[in-house]
Amino acid sequence: MWLAMRIAIASDHAATDLKAELRDWLIEQGHDVADLGPETGESVDYPDYGFKLAEVIADGTAERGVALCGSGIGISIAVNRNAAVRCALVTEPFSAALAREHNNANVIAMGARLTGSDMAKACLSAFLETEFADAGDANGRHRRRVDKLSNQGS
């Protein structure tokens, strides 16, 4: 079991059902969850919700984020426009764990049309349970690479 975290979750219209299920599941696990919307399946633009999610991760309001859309691709692109955020699109738990361990991802993205509820929960568990490999090592190889992402390659 992991420590309780502040987690923000957002989707587009294609993923509102999965978002609600994951939100409720995370709350049952003891996390503080901010649902950034949307509330209904009425058509919305995924970049709006991806940008909103990225903002609350970047400003520290939430420690981790969950981004959902039909495929997971569009919203992950939107979230990654913010240099303070590292969003990984995943389809199974091993890639979710590696996203944390090697890339220090702070947001996970999944596609509601591609990923079932049980698999999404398994991915989210792996994402939340895995620590960054270089958490205590300022000179570690993964830390160096992740820092380049935030510093635009310098």
UniProtKB/TrEMBL annotation:
Sites where the protein binds D-ribulose 5-phosphate: 12-13, 70-74, 103, 113, 141, 145
Keywords, comma-separated and alphabetical: Isomerase
Domain of life (superkingdom): Bacteria
SUPFAM superfamilies per the UniProt record, alphabetical: Ribose/Galactose isomerase RpiB/AlsB
InterPro entries (alphabetical): RpiB_LacA_LacB (IPR003500), RpiB_LacA_LacB_sf (IPR036569)
Active site: 69, 102
An individual GO BP term: carbohydrate metabolic process
Recorded GO MF terms: intramolecular oxidoreductase activity, interconverting aldoses and ketoses
UniProt keyword annotation of Secreted present: no
Similarity section: Belongs to the LacAB/RpiB family.
Protein name in UniProt: Ribose 5-phosphate isomerase
Organism: Aurantiacibacter atlanticus
Taxonomic lineage of the native organism: Bacteria, Pseudomonadati, Pseudomonadota, Alphaproteobacteria, Sphingomonadales
